[in-house]
Design goal:
Blueprint (H helix, E strand, L loop, with lengths): L14 E7 L5 H18 L4 E2 L4 H4 L20 E11 L4 E9 L5 E8 L2 H6 L1 H16 L18 H4 L1 E4 L4 E6 L4 E6 L4 E8 L5 E5 L13 H7 L7 E6 L4 E11 L5 E15 L1
Parallel strand pairs: 1-2, 1-3
Antiparallel strand pairs: 3-4, 4-5, 6-7, 6-13, 7-8, 8-9, 9-10, 10-11, 11-12, 12-13
Helix pairs in contact: 1-4
Length: 278
């Protein structure tokens, strides 16, 4: 459920982003989430400041709902925003994201939303922040003539840039991405999976299985379990970001076995390196 309290604000106003707190997500995932959150905030507040490194010095040592931010040198007109993310259901992989928003000298308000998987926090971050900021904008001016600022699109990543051969997972020997947005993955067991490659407006790269499900696509599972799972499994999907060092990093949404040896949808951190371009 999302709880929203409205405020007035100006897009020329400075807002300070203090990052993401999480004891359940690893450091790479937190860094990727912070990059995405700051981008969404900057779309609404071009003067946004990134002070995420300050959060560990101040926020962690205080009660999240009753912060005074005295350890951070901020102007009185600054607003402050940060997030906390935690896993709320080990079995089904559900996550909770809370946005803590302190507008100028007001009390800290909390905006809360739950997600079926971690990658949906990233995929739906724009809508989440739009809901918060558009609601607060409405309290300033309800006039229909007020125009919303369109989020800026990052077009630095293209299929052409990604075209080539990649490596990076233990049970995968080769990943080939073609310029037309298609490709294929060769597993070390000899299986071949056809894939579709697309890039969303937030520059996240979606790589999705298009071949019919095959037990050989789950080489990390015992063969017996893979044969039982494959006929009913959702297509495997990767949600990745293109990095400055010409690598791809993010998560793979696949199936693993939990402690009870039951199949569960799981998000696995992955890193791909380019082997050769086309």
């Amino acid at each position: 459920m999302l709880f929203i309290k409205t405020y007035s604000f100006s897009q020329s106003q400075e807002i300070v982003f203090l990052g993401v707190l999480s004891s359940d997500a690893d450091e790479n995932m937190i860094n990727m989430t912070e990059d995405m959150f700051f981008k969404q905030i900057s779309d609404f507040f071009p003067n946004a400041k990134d002070l995420r490194l300050k959060k560990k010095e101040t926020i962690v040592q205080n009660n999240l709902q009753n912060l005074d931010f005295t350890d951070i040198p901020l102007e009185s007109e600054n607003s402050i925003i940060f997030a906390s993310i935690k896993k709320i259901d080990e079995t089904n992989g559900r996550w909770q994201c809370k946005i803590f928003y302190k507008l100028q000298n007001s009390q800290t308000e909390i905006f809360e939303k739950e997600y079926d998987s971690y990658y949906k926090i990233l995929m739906e971050s724009k809508e989440f922040f739009q809901g918060i900021f558009n609601s607060t904008q409405k309290s300033k001016d309800d006039s229909p003539k007020e125009k919303k600022q369109e989020p800026k699109k990052n077009s630095s990543v293209t299929i052409e840039i990604l075209a080539g051969t990649w490596t990076g997972e233990k049970n995968i020997s080769k990943i080939v991405i073609l310029r037309g947005g298609r490709g294929f993955i060769i597993f070390t067991n000899g299986a071949s999976m056809n894939i579709n490659v697309s890039i969303d407006e937030n520059s996240f790269i979606h790589i999705k299985q298009t071949s019919s499900s095959n037990a050989s696509f789950y080489p990390e599972l015992p063969r017996k379990n893979a044969l039982e799972i494959a006929p009913f499994a959702k297509p495997i999907e990767w949600i990745l970001q293109y990095n400055d060092d010409d690598s791809l990093s993010g998560i793979k949404n696949t199936i693993t076995l939990n402690q009870n040896q039951d199949p569960v949808q799981t998000e696995i951190k992955v890193l791909w390196a380019r082997k050769s371009p086309f």
